[in-house]
């Protein structure tokens, strides 16, 4: 007999499935998933959606399990940004910096004229 994994994972089991506590699951994972009603009060999640969340989290935050020094190098060079969220950083295009400085100057002039 073959053991089959259920496609739907109930809310009570979902945090354990992804390897975290219930509170962290509710804060970080649950808002990004589609809830599937089971009966009048039950809630479940598609196991494939849970797997996809773990894959995205791994791409965003994962690193090799090696010595501390190597992890710092990994963070600097190989860490990926989660594809569904924006990121912050420093502009590498000088033309954008110049345009931004001009826009700041225009805003500052408008504020001075209004005072």
Structure description:
- With 115 residues, the chain is mainly alpha-helical.
- The chain has a domain at 8-86.
- 51% of the residues lie in helices and 10% in strands.
- The chain has 5 helices and 3 strands, in the order βααββααα.
- The chain has helices at 14-18, 22-29, 47-61, 68-77, 94-114; strands at 8-10, 36-38, 42-46.
- A 3-stranded antiparallel sheet has the order 1-3-2.
- Strand 2 and strand 3 form a beta hairpin.
Count every beta strand, where a strand is a DSSP E run of 2 or more residues: 3
What is the topology, as strand order, of the major beta sheet?
1-3-2
Q: How many H/I helical runs?
A: 5
Strand content: 5-15%
Distance between the termini: 80 Å
User: C-alpha Rg, in Å?
Assistant: 23 Å
The rough form would be described as elongated
Mean pLDDT, nearest integer? 79
Instruction: Determine the fraction of residues in helical runs and give it as a percent range.
Output: 40-55%
Structural class: mainly alpha
Low-confidence stretches: none
Q: Can you write the helix and strand succession as a string?
A: EHHEEHHH
Main beta-sheet annotation: 3 strands, antiparallel
Outline of this structure?
The protein has helices spanning 14-18, 22-29, 47-61, 68-77, 94-114; strands at residues 8-10, 36-38, 42-46.
């Amino acid at each position: 007999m073959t053991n089959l994994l259920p496609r739907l994972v109930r809310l009570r089991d979902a945090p354990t499935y992804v390897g975290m506590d219930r509170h962290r699951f509710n804060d970080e994972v649950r808002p990004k998933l589609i809830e599937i009603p089971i009966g009048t009060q039950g809630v479940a999640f598609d196991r494939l959606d849970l797997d996809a969340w773990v894959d995205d989290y791994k791409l965003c935050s994962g690193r090799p399990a090696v010595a501390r020094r190597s992890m710092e190098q990994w963070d600097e060079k190989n860490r990926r940004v989660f594809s569904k969220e924006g990121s912050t950083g420093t502009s590498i295009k000088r033309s954008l910096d110049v345009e931004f400085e001009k826009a700041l100057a225009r805003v500052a002039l408008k504020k001075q004229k209004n005072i």
